[in-house]
TrEMBL record:
<dbReference type="InterPro" id="IPR018580">
    <property type="entry name" value="Uncharacterised_YfhO"/>
</dbReference>
<keyword id="KW-0472">Membrane</keyword>
<keyword id="KW-0812">Transmembrane</keyword>
<feature type="transmembrane region" description="Helical">
    <location>
        <begin position="119"/>
        <end position="139"/>
    </location>
</feature>
<feature type="transmembrane region" description="Helical">
    <location>
        <begin position="351"/>
        <end position="370"/>
    </location>
</feature>
<feature type="transmembrane region" description="Helical">
    <location>
        <begin position="151"/>
        <end position="175"/>
    </location>
</feature>
<feature type="transmembrane region" description="Helical">
    <location>
        <begin position="195"/>
        <end position="228"/>
    </location>
</feature>
<protein>
    <recommendedName>
        <fullName>YfhO family protein</fullName>
    </recommendedName>
</protein>
<feature type="transmembrane region" description="Helical">
    <location>
        <begin position="416"/>
        <end position="434"/>
    </location>
</feature>
<feature type="transmembrane region" description="Helical">
    <location>
        <begin position="441"/>
        <end position="460"/>
    </location>
</feature>
<keyword id="KW-1133">Transmembrane helix</keyword>
<feature type="transmembrane region" description="Helical">
    <location>
        <begin position="377"/>
        <end position="396"/>
    </location>
</feature>
<feature type="transmembrane region" description="Helical">
    <location>
        <begin position="766"/>
        <end position="786"/>
    </location>
</feature>
<feature type="transmembrane region" description="Helical">
    <location>
        <begin position="267"/>
        <end position="293"/>
    </location>
</feature>
């Protein structure tokens, strides 16, 4: 099979697997969304009552942030505007600049052009398909055999990291990791303009995906690969280790790989490509940097960061999930959540390195045995080791990461991406070597562990009294610490945890034991040559995919369309009773920050990890003391509402919602709506003036305010939208200066008379970023297409000198003739 046909065949097989993985949301009429998690709160409770268990309690962020933001992006893009400002959160906040809104993420084009919520499933499917295709191309360029490259390409999309973070911007970035290695490897092999253009494009995609922390991890891994290649060059006296073969993208036959003329040249070209990609992503990176400077998040994280000399408490127990991802259960429906009681992080943080049990215990050791013949085994093993040490907070890697300027404040638990990436590539190398191995080590150990797991599955029932006592104590303590909590509800949660533990754990341990016994049987069959090698390989690939599917299928739930956006009585009430643009505030666990954005309502809080410091300072009395991090996600009680009542009124907050009633007599109007209490606040109007008898008629849109006003005397117009230096204004077409009112809202001077006002959000750093991105885009397009007239070396010889012209001619000659 020619390389081109093999690529098409692989793409079709991968598409079939991805379609099966998302069959319910792509073809079954369901929505890929965890929005049913809202139904557990009193604000959205329906006829299913307090017994309802959502499909996955852990997935709150996609409901409160990412899916509402995708919808907001789509709305603004379809209006021909960039979503620079979000007027629904925190009295208004920068939107594009928060990074995680991922406005320029290419997968969001599916939502921009398609319909919601159906597009969520297609976006997820596209991400995984792209991830698998990139891993296949990388494995092929590294000289993997057919089994190895197919295994790598089919396993990577369903690995733990991509699946657990599927609905987060984290996956938007992580899917490009194999593409970044592939593009970087092309530059190091054969440095030319086209390779630089491809690398710049992929680097830009890594950075616009919407999660700068994961982008840093991916770029760091790629940088380590380049350093490793340079070390190989120095040690062996040549650019890179010669590879068995290189598959050219043009579909040519397998040809011996060509070594770069100099290692220095390839590294320089790689640096140019990465720099070009950073400039390409400036449209997102630069606004994020300015937003961080106006937010307390960086300062808070720096303050909370331990000294690099401190040995942190390791997270070793969670490493078990690299082999058995549900070893501590999860927050899925029907699963016990054992990790909290044992001090283990949630599933998203512990299972990211999962690449299949067979990969970890069989194929990776086989790959390690090939380290002398294939130097990349050393790099992949080292990357996996670094990822493990960093994610488990083990020295010295954890200490080194905390000492670095940017990585010191990132969540390095997500270095499990390095683990999954490396294990799968090592698995591909090991699968290629499977037929070369006449004996398999550890087969007896696998069988012994399998018997131990089966024994544990049988004996777990004897722990029932102990489990009941632990669960009862834990949930009784949680109920006492939660205002307005019903102890009976928490008691039922304890009973559900015990019941699910006694049901799920024996089944999971038993299946894990059977899996190990099957692997041991396959290993013994191979050792005795009872089964042909192709069948053994097929079985290993099949078992790995079944293992990965068994872990990931349903982890990101497909729910009924009616559960994606439930309109509860309190939501209907707020829509009916409040006058826009009045804001709403909720206390306790009800109506978490930003959930109101799903319904076109404004929340006085924000759910973003980055928030404007001036807004948080204004509402400081609202939050309960004792929390170090400055964020609007802090606890709020009725006492805090009363403490900050004047500020809530000033911020145009019209209603406060809680599951318990406010103190008697504290509000003039309090309504009972279903199980909720709504207190009405006599708030200031969103727009007001200090001029007597002023008439104001303004229309408010995201990042744009316009209308007319009439002042009897010159005065100040106050708009209760968060002040930011990016706001601009004109009166009758003439620019006026925007100032801050009470250091948090907008204020502008207006002369006497009737005037036309225009106010819009247009930060200067965004214009600078656009200029940089446009310049980089032109450079990338030029590098990818290189006009034929530029190939003439006569002009170049005069401008560059004969030596440089000859080098550039060599670069251009390496491009296909049709360009």
């Amino acid at each position: 099979m020619s390389p081109r046909r093999e690529l098409l065949a692989f793409s079709a097989v991968l598409a079939t697997l991805v379609a099966g993985f998302f069959s319910e949301s792509l073809f079954g009429g369901k929505v890929l969304s965890p929005a049913d998690v809202l139904l557990v709160s009193a604000s959205f409770r329906d006829q299913r009552g307090t017994h309802y268990e959502p499909a996955n309690r852990l997935l709150m962020d996609p409901v409160l942030q990412f899916q509402p933001w995708i919808e907001f992006n789509r709305k603004m893009i379809r209006q021909g505007r960039l979503p620079l400002w979000n007027d629904h959160a925190g009295c208004g906040a920068p939107h594009l600049a928060n990074g995680q809104s991922a406005v320029f993420d290419p997968f969001q084009v599916i939502a921009y052009l398609g319909t919601l919520p159906e597009a969520y499933g297609w976006m997820a499917a596209a991400r995984l398909w792209i991830a698998g295709l990139g891993m296949f191309l990388l494995a092929r360029s590294w000289g993997f055999g057919p089994w190895g490259r197919w295994f790598s390409g089919l396993a990577f999309p369903f690995c733990g990291f991509l699946v657990v973070w599927l609905l987060y911007p984290v996956t938007n970035v992580a899917v490009w990791m194999p593409w970044l290695f592939w593009a970087g490897d092309r530059v190091l092999r054969r440095p030319n303009l086209r390779a630089v253009g491809v690398l710049g494009l992929v680097t830009g995609l890594v950075l616009v995906g919407g999660h700068v922390q994961t982008s840093a991890h991916v770029l760091l891994a790629a940088g380590l690969f380049v350093l490793w290649q340079a070390a190989v060059t120095v040690r062996r006296g040549r650019a890179i280790e010669p590879e068995p073969a290189v598959i050219e993208d043009s579909g040519a036959s397998r040809l011996p790989s060509e070594e770069p003329r100099t290692g220095r040249r390839g590294v320089c070209y790689w640096a140019v490509g990465v720099t070009l990609g950073i400039m390409l992503a400036a449209v997102e990176v630069v606004p994020l940097g300015f937003y961080l400077a106006r937010s307390p998040v960086w300062e808070d994280r720096e303050r909370e960061r331990d000294s690099p000399w401190v040995i942190a408490r390791p997270r070793v127990l969670g490493a078990i999930c690299t082999a058995f991802p549900y070893a501590f259960g999860s927050q899925r429906r029907g699963h016990p959540h054992l990790g909290r009681g044992l001090g283990v992080d949630n599933l998203n943080e512990t299972a990211g390195g999962f690449a299949g049990l067979a990969t970890l215990i069989w194929l990776v050791p086989l790959a390690w045995s090939a380290r002398r013949a294939n130097a990349r085994v050393w790099f992949l093993a080292g990357l996996a080791a670094l990822g493990t040490l960093g994610s488990c907070r083990l020295p010295p890697v954890d200490n080194l990461l905390r000492a670095l300027p940017v990585l010191g404040v990132t969540d390095n638990r997500r270095l499990s991406l390095w683990v999954a990436f490396s294990l799968i590539l090592l698995g591909g190398i090991g699968l290629d070597r499977l037929q070369q191995t006449r004996s398999v080590l550890w087969g007896g150990l696998w069988a012994a562990v399998a018997l131990l797991l089966v024994t544990g599955a049988v004996a777990i029932g004897r722990l029932e009294p102990y489990l009941k006592q632990r669960a009862t104590d834990h949930y009784a303590k949680a109920a006492s610490a939660t205002a307005g909590a019903d102890p009976a509800v928490y008691q039922r949660r304890a009973e559900r945890q015990v019941s699910s533990t006694l049901t799920f754990v024996p089944r999971y341990l038993g299946l894990a034991g059977v899996h190990l016994l099957v692997l041991a049987g396959l290993a013994e069959s191979m050792r005795r040559r009872l089964v042909p090698s192709p069948l053994i390989r097929s079985a290993v690939v099949g078992l790995t995919l079944v293992d990965l599917f068994g872990f990931g299928f349903g982890l990101n739930p497909a729910i009924a369309r009616s559960d994606d956006r439930p309109v509860s009585p309190v939501i209907a009430y707020l829509r009916r009773e409040l006058k826009p643009p009045g804001r709403i505030l909720a206390i306790g666990e009800e109506l978490p920050p930003n959930v109101l954005m799903r319904y076109g309502l404004d929340d006085a809080r924000n759910y973003d990890s980055i928030e404007l410091a001036r807004n948080l300072a204004f509402f400081a009395p609202l939050y309960e003391p004792g929390t170090k991090a400055r964020t609007s996600r802090r606890d709020i009680t009725w006492e805090g509402v009363l403490r900050s009542r004047d500020r809530l009124e000033e911020a145009s907050v019209q209603a406060v919602v809680g599951v318990t009633p406010p103190p008697a007599g504290s509000f003039r109007r309090v309504d009972r709506v279903g199980e909720m209490w709504v207190a009405h606040v006599a708030s200031a109007p969103w727009a007001s003036a200090d001029s007597p008898n002023a008439r104001i008629a303004l229309d408010r849109e995201p990042g744009r305010i316009g209308g007319e006003c009439e002042f009897e005397t010159s005065g100040q117009l106050v708009m209760r939208e968060t002040f930011d230096p990016g706001w601009r204004a004109t009166v009758d077409g003439l620019p006026v200066e925007i100032n801050s009112y009470r250091e948090v809202f907008l204020m502008m001077p207006v002369p006497a008379g009737r005037h036309r006002l225009e106010v819009w959000y247009d930060p200067p750093e965004f214009r600078l970023a656009i200029a940089a991105s446009v310049f980089a885009l032109i450079a990338v397009v030029f590098a990818l297409t290189v006009p034929p007239w530029f190939r003439s070396t006569r002009i170049m010889a005069v401008a560059l000198g004969r030596t440089q012209a000859a080098e550039l001619e060599s670069d251009l000659c390496s491009l296909p003739a049709n360009n």
